[in-house]
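Lines hold sequence, tokenised fold; shown next:
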Amino acid sequence: MRANLAINAAHAPNLAAHFGAHVVEALIDEVTLAPKPGLVDIRGRGAHHDLDWQLMCASALALQPTFVELARAGIETQALPALRERIGAIGRDGEARMFDATGGVNTHRGAIWALGLLVTAAARNPDDLAPRAVAARAGSIARVQDRHAPAITGNKGEQACLDYNVGGARGQAQAGFPHVVDVALPELARSRSRGDSETAARLNALLAVMASLDDTCVLARGGPDALADLQHGARRVLEQGGAAALAGRRELKALDRRLVELHVSPGGAADLLAAALFLDRLQREALPTTKA
């Protein structure tokens, strides 16, 4: 990989900008997708009172320089400990940039972590952009300790991990994003192969993640009962044919109503869908040097 990195370093600005733009496109694709149960989308706020589509898009665009910097770090920094600390600092600066853009509202903290690791990993070896390979490299980075990271951040997802003994976003990343490569992407491929629309395929991928993920956004706001409702409802949609089927759409509407009623929003699943869309975009770009 040293030779590849040396070659890519000469083209680092263009390559980093290319990958950073793909991340932002994935984030905007995710938030625009509708109808997503309990989540902000092009229709409305979902279960949120402080978020909307316009704010989420503004946040994603404001974060593009952060994702470009993360990709640049992946190209330039070979040693994993140094890379982990460099991207940790970039990510914390990105959070500050996000809060400046949103007036203090947390729109994309989880996405900065997940997509930040993945864009770093993609740029680290652009000769192998197969989703599983990129996710595995991201997991290797995530498992390295950042000496400068705060021991406790105080965010609700972190507290939910402690309260309910789940891995959360950190555990998902350190495991190589299994809900992305083993759940979301296969469901996306299955739905496409049977002729579902792209919207329905993406919704089904999201629902497949919701059906089994211990989503800390839901646990933090609604506890285990709300998580059980989410997982059961997502499975029902898929069992009834998914978002492309009339019966599935009825179940999807019912799940949306239930989550809004509970005031819970599966933001962890949304972040993983964005991650899946990013990896899918890289793979489908079909660069000559990309392995299938």
Q: What stands out?
A: Confidence is low (pLDDT under 50) at residues 1-8. DSSP finds 14 helices and no strands in the chain. Residues 52 and 173 are 27 Å apart (CA to CA). The chain has one domain: 2-145+155-285.
